[in-house]
Amino acid sequence: xxxxxxxxxxxxxxxxxxxxxxxxxxxxxxxxxxxxxxxxxxxxxxxxxxxxxxxxxxxxxxxxxxxxxxxxxxxxxxxxxxxxxxxxxxxxxxxxxxxxxxxxxxxxxxxxxxxxxxxxxxxxxxxxxxxxxxxxxxxxxxxxxxxxxxxxxxxxxxxxxxxxxxxxxxxxxxxxxxxxxxxxxxxxxxxxxxxxxxxxxxxxxxxxxxxxxxxxxxxxxxxxxxxxxxxxxxxxxxxxxxxxxxxxxxxxxxxxxxxxxxxxxxx
Length: 267
Prior knowledge:
The protein is mainly β. The protein contains 2 helices and 20 strands. It has helices spanning 11-18, 168-171; strands spanning 31-41, 47-52, 55-58, 65-68, 74-75, 84-91, 94-101, 104-113, 119-126, 135-146, 156-166, 172-178, 181-185, 191-195, 201-202, 211-218, 221-228, 231-240, 246-253, 258-266. Residues 1-25 form the signal peptide.
């Protein structure tokens, strides 16, 4: 569910931080962590949508998407998670979207704008990580700017306000420090094992990320950089609280030029 992080560490201090912990000492990161949806700071940058004259445009998708809104599979390119998109106009205030990859349904979502046009609810099912159990959830968006006159109600700029619910498999991650290696695994099938020296390692289970690098910035601070085909797509700084019960994760999304943060609790 990941930026501009700068660590000011000097010479000897940096070297000390990168030294592996003794094998007998448990790292503050070791264990399973679950995101608290009540402690999520959503990106400030809005999503920009337009549905008009039978065409649906996602202007802030990377790359942008423009497809016919006739309910049929329309080809899209440049997206690692899907290669077709089908947008159906349910009524004057709602649309339904189905994304597929190689003919398989990857995600299924509905967006419904309130009667006053100021907010919208969304719900989704997502299998983009090829997990046996799809990720499900719902949430609320608030309108930042109106769309052009005569456009469908979903048109305009929207900022995600909050998530009402998200299935546990998307909220849970397990971490382990073993010598100089930092490992992550998730119920959705994502995993990696990387040296804590900033060198690249394979990122498994996510079509949108091909490699990851990790740097240990302190006993309670780790920086994770995800890449796609060598290009940085996100940088996350993970900081475990002194009591070891919570971890704050600040994420810079380099693809969408957005920032968000959330808190995960030790399970």
